[in-house]
Amino acid sequence: MENMEEDFNRRELVDVQGVPLFWGIAEEWSQVESFETRPDDLLIATYPKSGTTWVSEIVDLIYNNGDTEKCKRDVIYNRVVFMELIIPGILNGIKDLEAMQSPRLVKTHLPVQLLPHSFWKNNCKVIYVARNAKDVVVSYYYFYQMAKLHPLPGTWEEFLEKFIAGKVAYGSWYDHVKGWWEKRKDHRILFLFYEDLKENPKQEIQKLLKFLEKDLPEETINKIVYHTSFDVMKNNPSANYTTVEEWDMDHSVSPFMRKGISGDWKNHFTVAQYERFEVDYQKKMKGSTLHFRAEI
Question: Does the annotation mark 227 as catalytic?
Answer without folding.
Answer: no
